[in-house]
Amino acid sequence: MLTILQKEFNAFLNSPVAYVVLGVFLVATGLFVWVFPDSSVLDYGYADLQTLFNLAPWIFLFLIPALTMRTFAEEKKAGTIELLLTRPLTDGQIIGGKYLACLLLALLALVPTLLYYYSVYKLGSPEGNIDSAATVGSYLGLALLAAVFAAIGVLASALTRDQIIAFLVAVVGCFLVYSGFDSLASVLQGSAAYYVSQLGIAAHYRDLSKGLVDSRDLVYFFSVVAVALQATRLALRSRNW
């Protein structure tokens, strides 16, 4: 699995896709956090990074599927999937290697944004006037969100040989899991609305953004990742049906 992870990660770094994805993410978040007056931290008057953590999930909604769309779809289109599957590797090792490579690249995009935290920490009055617990929780939430989106993207890529279709399916799947349940809950009332909202990512992400690291939220994220990767495994096994 580590060999596949290294191969896939190096393949990303040797293609322009990774740099385009990282560049778009950093430029977009940088403009909204520091430049645009309606969302700029400098004009907002509060020492926090809520703009970043509100915007990043929507950017990830498109950028992570752009990373994952080639994982299996490209192998199928090039005819190398059979060669890969005949190697002395289990389906789990193949999926795990490709999934972790995509996730690692997505997490790499978050590393430069730590400069945003340092800048706000220094600019605060007094210095350090920022809710560090909420910031750590928000970064954890983004990392888990990226893990879910990457799992859904790998699943979408395993279902088709066309990268564009894989991208579109992944975007729709990520949107439904992230925002779809909240939209459905908004038309319901009482306890039904609460339980439906808990099925989506947004509610759990909001809890983590407050600095509340609850085991239930962690179990939710890991469960969604496990289900998506297991579905990917079933999609690969279907070649034998």
Structure description:
- The structure is a single chain.
- This protein has 241 residues and is mostly helical.
- It is 77% helix and 0% strand.
- It contains 13 helices and no strands.
- α7 packs across α9.
- The protein is globular.
- The mean pLDDT is 86.
- This is Gliding motility-associated ABC transporter permease subunit GldF.
- It is found in: Cell membrane.
* Strand content bin: under 5%
Report the mean per-residue pLDDT as an integer. Answer: 86
Rg over C-alpha atoms, rounded to the nearest angstrom: 19 Å
Q: Please give the alpha-carbon distance between the first and last residues.
A: 25 Å
Structural class, by secondary structure, is mainly alpha
What overall geometry do the principal axes of the alpha carbons give?
Answer: globular
Low-confidence stretches: none
Helix content: over 70%
InterPro entries: ABC-2_transporter_component, ABC2_memb-like, Motility-assoc_ABC_perm_GldF
Pfam families: ABC2_membrane_5
Protein name: Gliding motility-associated ABC transporter permease subunit GldF
Membrane topology: Multi-pass membrane protein
Secondary-structure map with pairings?
Blueprint: H1 2-13, H2 16-35, H3 41-44, H4 50-68, H5 73-78, H6 81-85, H7 91-110, H8 114-123, H9 132-158, H10 163-185, H11 190-197, H12 201-209, H13 215-237
Helix pairs in contact: 1-7, 2-4, 2-7, 4-7, 4-9, 4-10, 7-9, 7-13, 9-10, 9-12, 9-13, 10-11
Relevant terms:
cell membrane; transmembrane; ABC2_memb-like; 241 residues; 77% helix; mainly alpha; ABC-2_transporter_component
